[in-house]
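*** Residues and shapes ***
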Amino acid sequence: MKPAVAATAATANAVSDDRQCRRFELDVAGTKAFIDYRRAGNVVTLAYAYVPADLRGRGVGAALIAGALDLVRDRGEKVIPECSYVAAYLARHPRDQDLLADRSDAR
């Protein structure tokens, strides 16, 4: 059985922003999960989340999204959840609803 990777503050804080590749990354034992994004002003469109098969079912995706949202919040940005997994995460976490971009943010 695979050990769980809890979406703890320490794990979420391990998320980094690779601006050159335009993706948020979480390294777990040498394997990277990531979210591809696009930026327009202060809006970050979270386009595609990927968690490698050997990391799935262990909370890595949730930790990745939580960390990415923390980075977005710290920068005063908003998000558009284009990825269905990210959108589902946001729907389940009301505390992050304030990060959703509205029409006035998307300018």
About this structure: The chain has three helices and five strands. The chain has a mean pLDDT of 88. Strands lie at 16-18, 23-28, 31-40, 43-50, 78-81.
